[in-house]
Amino acid sequence: MRFLFVFFMLVACHASSFSQHLYQNLPFFNYLINTRNYEEAGLLLNTLEDADYSTIDSINYYKGKVFYLSQNLSEATVSFNKLNNPNHPLYTQGSFYNAFCKSHLGEYQNAMHDLQQLTISDSLIVNLRGLQLAGIYLLDRDLNAFDDISLTFNHKYYQTSSQEKSFLGIRNDLGNYKRKSPFLAGVLSAAIPGMGRIYAGKTGLGIGTLLTSAVFALQTWEGYRKDGVKSARFIIFGSIFSIFYVGNIWGSVFTVKISNAEFNDAVNHKILVDMHIPLRSIFN
Predict the structure, then answer these.
(1) HSE-up of 46 (CA within 13 Å, CB side)?
(2) Is 209 left (phi over 0), alpha (psi -120 to 50) or beta?
(3) 190, 167 Cβ separation under 8 angstroms
(4) Over the stretch 218-266, which tens digit does the pLDDT of each residue have?
(5) How far is CA 226 from the centre of its chain?
(6) Which of 7, 121, 188, 237 could crosslink 195 through cysteines, CB 3.0-4.6 Å?
(7) Rounded to the nearest 10 degrees, what angle do helices 38-46 and 26-34 cross at?
(8) CA neighbor of 39 nearest in space, from 25, 51, 29
(9) Separation between Cα atoms, residue 242 and residue 146, nearest integer Å
(10) The whole model's pTM is what?
């Protein structure tokens, strides 16, 4: 039933005049957005391709917003990049959303440019821009730039004060984090099997590797001591120990790489969430 309602409303919208179409049908567009019918909202906007110039920035903004909400961030930036009138009432919002999408995609310099070129007089929005730039500096691991802009944090606005405090905590975590060396992990595991994984913070896995290596090493030594180097027992357990020993070294290297990546991914996720929350609360 809801699909039929949406279908007939889209047909009705398509039949209306393009010049008045956008503003007449904003309530229906907002209904589609609020009910997460993003595909249908996109179809509605696609009927406005031939709209007159006076509404083109609004159309591009709403297209970008639909892509943003449906998490198609690369397409969102394409639409937001088409905003070309700084005096348009949606231009500032579009630039903020565009910067967030680009930050999510790792385009930090472009994201900073989108925010820095804005002319803003509202103190809340100025504060929001500082917060977003601070988040981008953290994502880019430019801690010196973050330290400079964090001096503007005043914890004055409830929409951003929690995120300001969160960013200061994240900055401390990044400053105190000691990136682990894959090379050192390999060296440690070569010296004592399992030590590289313990160094990476995987203590249980490291101890398990050490005990398993010890079992194979003892069996190899026992085969050599009792039966000599040509015995099947020595050859079999010696081969198993050699394979396990080499695997332990490579495993430690990759464990450290994964540990570093997990830390960075977790921090980046937290930063992006803290950037996203005030955007939604202020502009919605």
Answers:
(1) 9
(2) alpha
(3) no
(4) 777 777 777 776 777 777 777 877 787 777 778 788 888 888 888 899 9
(5) 58
(6) 188
(7) 150
(8) 29
(9) 49
(10) 0.76
